[in-house]
Amino acid sequence: MSIKQDKYYKELIDLQDVNGVESQIKSLLDIQIESVSDLEKWLEDEKSLMNKIAEAMTGHQVDFYRNTEDEDIKATYLHDQQVIQPLLMKYEAKLNEKCCESPYFNQLDEERYGLMRRVRGSKVKLFREENIPLMVKEQELNTKYSEIMGGLTVEWDGEEKPFPFIQSQLDHLDRAVREKAYYAMGSAFSHIKADMDAIMDELVQLRHQIALNAGFDNYRDYMFVVKNREYTVQDCYDFHENVEKHIIPAWNRLAEVFKSKLGVDTYRPWDNTAKLMKKPPYTEVSALMDGVSDMLGKTDPYFAERFDYMRENGLLDLGDRKGKSPGGFCTSLPVSGDTFVFANFSPSFFSLIALIHEMGHAVNGYLELAEHGPIEDYQHRMEVAELYSHGMELLLLDKLDRFYPDEEDFKSAQREELRRAFTMLFGPLSGDLFQHWMYTNPNHTAKERDEKFFEISKRYGLNPVDTTGLEEQIGMSWAGTLHYFQVPFYNIEYSISMLGALQLLENYRSNPELAVESFKKGAGADYNQSIAAIYEETGVSFDFSESAVKRMGDFLESVIKEIN
């Protein structure tokens, strides 16, 4: 049969032909490996096949996120998740076994293959056949979550509006509108709360069983091995404490600035949003893209060249519409050699920053591709990837006047980006602490989960906020964070990388050209290195000790004082 050629991704393998896919994978298992060079050739053949499968599956996933209501698209996506994904899990274990058991495995060059050897070795140790159906069920629950959130609408002034539109109203100048939007979001969550609780309850139990099957006491400890983390559980707990001690005081100081600018007596959750600019930064997506291209170009011509290329080649889908999945992400297309940015944006400051963030990922992807070819799964560590997305945001901090030419608006925008830097430090970190609690207490109730989420939120992001009477609404708001459902324990990486990105900003303020060159050098670095080595190439330190966190807390205080 002829395989569909799509504008933004290639289907070089027919995933509907399950027997054909299985046959190609099985053929890898039949290859005789009789030397180190044979093993290296086998690894290349494996990568080529897996890239074809990955690109097709990625394209189908993006198609589904772009239109969750199209039954054909949904069926294709579900086929991938329910049929192809289990097949890959089954054969991934066999392929890992073949590779790791080869007598030539430990003779592979350490510099090039050391990380791969460690990751594959962990996977061999972790694999359990009985976990495959549990992981398939996990994907089904995540699809259900996407469908519920993608279809979530709110009545607003007599009209049915998509949920991202209501979120954008939290930036409104009128405090009454912000308050109305806040309560409308809470009302929307209350309608889906029972479904969210049921999904999360089942996910926690599924994941706990997966961990038990693999020989772990809990899912948290299992995930640390899955992610091959280059730091410990205790390091995370220390980081939680260091941020509470040294970053939250600076955050409270910024909150006082916001409170003063707003002229309010009490600082409520709907005041703790990006609302001091007089209007959204754009009205049409085309204007957003024009402005971001300019900002990228003023930072480095290569950044703008990549953005314009993506825009011209259908690799950006940014607007909001009903039936589109929430959130935003950048994903790689390893065969095409491209990246795709998906987002569900309504005009808001957040949307502007989120696009810049995803372009950090995209530039990282293109530089890696140019230097080393497509990033392989085992190389893709979020502590590294998020350094360049957060870093891009902060490199463009001094160019927000492209959207906010008025001096006071410009300062407000910079303060809002500082707010985001803070929230990316303590928000994911508090989310990480929440997940540590959830998965080391797998028999918790929905009520206990809400109470714990509120308690942790109050220690961090809501520390300076008056939450009186809103405990229940805040407690259930975890349901709006897709990471807890779809990418568990993908949280602390944001905070670690934001600490690195703040160092990048510190460097940029001293020497812009050198900081940008270091950014590009690190973004195209050999991903087989340790995280610390890649950070070093970027001109920053992979360090979240108390002294490092305190230094960044002091730096943030100085920037707040300067902008104020």
Low-confidence stretches: 1-5
Q: Which quaternary structure do these chains form?
A: single chain
Identify the strand order in the major beta sheet: 3-5-4
- Strand tally is 5
Measured as a percent range, the helix fraction is 55-70%
Work out the helix count. Answer: 22
What is the averaged pLDDT score? 94
Structural class: mainly alpha
The major beta sheet can be summarized as: 3 strands, mixed
**Cα distance spanning the termini:** 64 Å
DSSP strand content? under 5%
Keywords: Hydrolase, Metal-binding, Metalloprotease, Protease, Zinc
Domain Peptidase M3A/M3B catalytic: 173-527
Organism: Evansella alkalicola
Protein name: M3 family oligoendopeptidase
Model description:
Helix 3 runs antiparallel to helix 5 (132-150), helix 10 (248-262) packs parallel to helix 22 (546-563) and helix 14 (382-395) crosses helix 19. The chain has a domain at 18-127. The strands form 2 sheets. A 3-stranded mixed β-sheet has the order 3-5-4, sandwiched between helices. The chain has 22 helices and 5 strands. The termini are far apart. By secondary structure, the chain is mainly α. Helices cover 66% and strands 5% of the residues. The longest helix has 39 residues, at 175-213. A hairpin with a 4-residue loop joins strand 4 (328-333) and strand 5 (338-345). InterPro entries: Pept_M3A_M3B (IPR045090), Pept_M3A_M3B_dom (IPR001567), Pept_M3B_oligopep-rel (IPR011976). Its cofactor is Zn(2+). This is M3 family oligoendopeptidase.
